[in-house]
Design goal:
heterodimer, A: mainly beta, 6-stranded mixed sheet, 5-stranded antiparallel sheet, B: about 110 residues, mainly beta, 7-stranded mixed sheet
Chain lengths: ~110, ~110
């Protein structure tokens, strides 16, 4: 049973436009959500996170929105750049702190066209 | 500060062979974990450790053993490799109070 779902395997966007990456979850115990970015032949790197007490968190070009009632979060990248082309993983955990295990989605491959 | 390092980067095994994937971190992180990434499956947790001498199973532990004798090292052992263990393996670490994990560059393993 997949608890974190990224239903669209890929997304292609024109440079300068907005990229919207979606993520849904089923476990109501999840309390903290993270996005990781992964380039080929590299390990994932942390991008941005949000706590369930917030509905928005912004960091430069990256904004994550959380709709807790719909169990849905989205990552917005504005403006998109060719260097943003990567696989993006949504992840969730039930508690703050390292001892709370992360559950990852399958990932979305973002391609930003010049 | 090298962060999280993994060796080897690539490995080819025959069915039934054994090997150890090495993982080390120099950030004095208490928490370390192993994931595997398969096409269309995302990252799945194999084993994790909350400190030296303490390990526990993740989502897909079968066929793998771990130990944590020091804070820095967290090796993953395949006792008898199977083709189903062909995957990319990532080691990660974080401090006890942190929410984010730092990942190593990965080991690409092929079992023939």
């Amino acid at each position: 049973d997949q608890q974190v779902k990224q239903n669209s395997p890929s997304l292609s966007v024109q440079e300068g436009r907005i990229s919207i990456l979606n993520c849904d979850y089923t476990n109501s115990m999840f309390d903290y959500f993270l996005w990781y970015k992964k380039y080929p032949a590299e390990g994932p790197t942390f991008l941005i996170s949000i706590s369930s007490i917030k509905d928005k968190n912004e960091d430069g070009r990256f904004t994550v929105f959380l709709n807790k009632s719909a169990k849905h979060l989205s990552l917005h990248i504005v403006p998109s750049q060719p260097g943003d082309s990567a696989v993006y993983f949504c992840a969730a955990k039930p508690l703050r702190g390292a001892n709370s295990k992360l559950t990852f989605g399958k990932g979305i491959t973002l391609s930003v066209r010049p | 500060n090298a962060g999280v390092t993994q060796t080897p980067k690539f490995q080819v095994l025959k069915t039934g062979q054994s090997m150890t994937l090495q993982c080390a971190q120099d950030m004095n992180h208490e928490y370390m974990s192993w994931y595997r990434q398969d096409p269309g499956m995302g990252l799945r947790l194999i084993h994790y450790s909350v400190g030296a001498g303490i390990t526990d199973q993740g989502e897909v532990p079968n066929g793998y053993n771990v130990s944590r004798s020091t804070t820095e090292d967290f090796p993953l052992r395949l006792l008898s490799a199977a083709p189903s263990q062909t995957s990319v393996y990532f080691c990660a670490s974080s401090s006890r109070t942190a929410d984010t994990q730092y990942f190593g560059p990965g080991t690409r393993l092929t079992v023939l």
